[in-house]
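#lab-general

N.A. 3:47 PM
ok so I finally got the sequence cleaned up, no stray characters, all 966 residues accounted for. can someone with queue access submit it? mine expired

B.Y. 3:52 PM
send it over

N.A. 3:53 PM
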Amino acid sequence: MDSDSDDDVFNMDAVVLTADEDEDVLSEGDILKEAELAVIDSNSVRIEQLQTQTANARSHATLDLALLLSRGEYADVVRHESVQSLWKSLGDAIQRLGLTTKHPCTRITQALEEVFVTDPSNMQPLSYTVLFAGAAFLNLFVQLNYTGPAVEDAAFADLLPMLHVLLDDSTVEATKSTLHSHALVSLQVDGESPFSICEYPVFLETARCLLHFVGLQSKVNWTHSESDDHITKPTPLANFLRRPRTVHGMARPLNPQVTAALLALSTGAWWTGRSLMTHQRLLITKEPSNTLWTETQLCFSVVVGRSYPSDTYLSARAQLEWGLAQHVFEIHGKGRASFDDAMAASGLTVQMSGSMGKRTKYQVKSVAQMVLHATSRVENVAGASASALAEAQTTHVDFGGQSSGEMEEANEEGDPLSFEDQLVADGKAAYRNITRDQADPDNILLEHVAFEDGAAASDSNLQVIDQAILLSLCLDVKNNNPADGLTSEQMVRDLCETQRSRERAILQMQALVDQHTTRLTITQTSLKAIQDAAPAHERLAYVYSVIFPPRYELKRDLADRYLSCGVFASALATFQELEMWDEVVQCFQLLDQPKHAEALVRERLAVAPTPLMWCCLGDLTEDVAHYETAWEVSKHRFARAKRTWGRKMFEQHKIDEAIGHFQDAVRVAPMYTQAWFFLGSLSMRTEDWPTAVQAFTRVVQLSPDDGEAWGNLGSIHLRLRQHNEAFNAFQEALKQRRTLWQMWENFVLCAMQVHKFGDAMYAMHQLLDLRDKHKRPVDHEMLAWLVEAIVYPQADAIADDGGENEAATIDMHAVYPLDDDDNDDGVVTRAPTAASDANYKTQLAKLLGRTTSIVTNNPKVWQVYAHFHDGCGHKAKALECRLKECRALQKAGWDKNQHDVELLCRAAKRLSVSYIEDGSKASLHACRLYLRGVVKKSQVDFADNPDVQDLQGVLHHLETLEAQAN
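B.Y. 4:20 PM
back already:
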């Protein structure tokens, strides 16, 4: 059966898991499905109840696996007889089919299908065995790298031999180091490598192989990437629900019975999605993997498409984890809609409000304080577990830790104490509930905000899933707001511990770190405290519902902070520990030690010639041949080599070669926005507009808040005279980059072309606000266009009268519409549309009034203003504007410059028309006096100039009219 035509993969409805209240006995299938969901919820009590309702031996074995998994006994799941039997059959199938040379994922999945086909009557139990084994391996990896407690290597000694099936060479012994090295290579995806300091990556590799078979049956393995055509933007889940899983030759035919057995699992896709997120977070690169993102969408499309009527909180958890997946893969919106869906499913009510209160000791008057009100649909009344109570006694600083008496009792039992622990036992370094006043006697802040309303200070007892949703909402505030004070205020309302003292916060962080280890520490002062600490199943119960950082991610963050603070040596040491060689080379260069960096890189190349190390060597030696080597070593999968190679070609002014390299890079890693941006910029240089449009379109789809990409996209559309598209692009650009005057100029032009005159006038106001930055003259041409379009909508054209133009034509061939050259003899712009609206006229009057109040010496602006008043019937104001135009032209030395003389004579001629239309004696007299002065000065050097002679003729006409009036 070819799953290319198998749309049932995403059309299946979830099995309704409700049982009739009158029936005490569930069917075997329902029992196993209930157990699946109980494992997701870590509900061992429910699984124990289900065990009493079946006598089937196979179901009992499956329920045993579920019970071990829910209790956190993950290694025992792998040791279980059913898993061992499956593994033996798996090894036999690999040998029988000769699959030893294939990728581990391909080898495991094809062998598993063979195991299923050879035992068709046992497919359902086998499906659950594969699912629970994969979940156990995944949780083992998460326990060792995320939550703790740590496990000694000896505890896994019996598990390593069975993982020999992952190795390509059957003669190699399956030791920890061998499996570790092999897993690091196998877990590479899209050319990116995982952190090498993680614990037992082979557990994640095994989980990915098993769960890949469960949730992504048709895919060959994770080394195949999606086609370039399928990553233009995050695909909506609704589309995936009708889309088969097979794409672009990555599919293989599946046995229909095997497919049906795997599709019957309720949580197979859920666990697969969790493994994909864990895989992404293991990669060193901070850029999301396109391959993993595509597979994650496929899995969560099934998860959120199911219904969970037996437990509404499972629906909330499904939506929450899908939202966190979008956050991990840096998808626009970052899961806000999913967080809202999770909140609706759980019944959580959240309201950001305010309440009157005081923050300082000496504050007399209460002021408004931000407060968050959160309430669960059902209050959490469950009592604390024994481990939680033990944790409160040993590590929760709010309760002051163990007393010295308790410490002495623990010591009498024979627990060895270190010197530091003995200090705690003696009371010399006991934990204390440190208040603000104890930490700082001069502190003026209250320990807590004193609210006038007592209800505002009360904390409701939220369900655990509701607490996780609340943290996700806090994460959303951080994702979608700038890093300012208001954002911090909004976030801290979601965190109940933010008002604690710094000392206590440090101890709490230390307690979290110590829970990774089984050593005695300052917060784990006895062996009993370690034994009583929270067990693995409690730690992992909600670890997939929050963004809990693994140890290697914390170290990377610490190293980044060292680097940003200029502590290069400490950053270097941490990056070396993490084997982040790009950053190691950067630190050596910052420390002015390039030779040390090159020696280190060559040493690493001798050990393992990876594509990354070849790129690092290229960075140090400036030899592009090393990037070519990296590209070939990676089998054309390491996009970083092509990106750097392209930049080097650009620096050498080889634009065409650079474009080719960036095209290869985005084909391999299409979610890397900077590569798309660079490709678009280079394509603009070569005027390859289709490629540029495609590149910047990808940028804004992957990062919709990239204002520069929107601006470039708008400029390209403007070049292509696609004004509607340009207008929309500039609208988006200006949402992000409101201080770029170039964008506002282009936006004005686009708005005029699409007859959005209100937007055009708003943009002109913004340009006036930004005059201090651009120092450009006021765009009188655009003002003239606005006047023609709004005040004279019926005018088709105005012929040139031989004088100075009302406004110059717009040059559509320039990215920016105007320049500073005023020496043009164009014609008045043709009115683009009939848009005579009283509101527009009012707005235009305000714009012109504000412009002339800011720029008082621009004669062309006064000319446009006069033309506006003419159209509105304001004759007196038009005359006043023309008089100010003439005064602005009479700058010092105007009578010595022929061009200035001509401009003033034309303006004076237009002024005389207004005076003559007035017709009063005073107007005629004033006009005659003014024209006589202009003519007298102009005739000194330019008596034969036609404009001067025309003005002299107007003067004679005025004298005649004035004589007649007398």
